[in-house]
Design a protein that fits this description.
- The protein is mainly α and 68 residues long.
- The protein has a single domain, classed as Histone, subunit A (Orthogonal Bundle), CATH 1.10.20.10.
- Helices cover 71% and strands 0% of the residues.
- The protein has three helices and no strands.
- It has helices spanning 6-15, 23-50, 58-67.
- Helix 1 (6-15) packs across helix 2 (23-50) and helix 2 (23-50) packs across helix 3.
- The chain starts with 5 loop residues before the first helix and ends with a helix.
- Keywords: Chromosome, Cytoplasm, DNA-binding.
- This is Histone family protein.
- InterPro entries: Archaeal_histone_HMF (IPR050947), CBFA_NFYB_domain (IPR003958), Histone-fold (IPR009072), HmfB-like (IPR050004).
Length: 68
């Protein structure tokens, strides 16, 4: 089960040029995006902790994205 809403996933696919996308494909894309987002968030947490902060900042997310 995915946590991301499926409607925005469909909009992303359509903005990328898809005319149609199956329900299974939407769910699979949502799973992949959640996994990628979770990896970035985990890395950002490490970066914030290393900097002595509890709060994740934009720069943590940007740096984490480059690492993942």
């Amino acid at each position: 089960m995915v946590e991301l809403p499926i409607a925005p996933i469909e909009r992303i696919a359509k903005k990328s040029g898809a005319e149609r996308i199956s329900e299974d494909a939407k769910v699979e894309l949502a799973k992949i995006l959640e996994d990628y987002g979770s990896k970035i968030a985990s890395e950002a947490v490490k970066l914030a902790k290393h900097a002595g902060r509890k709060t994740i900042k934009t720069e943590d997310i940007k740096l984490a994205r480059e690492k993942v």
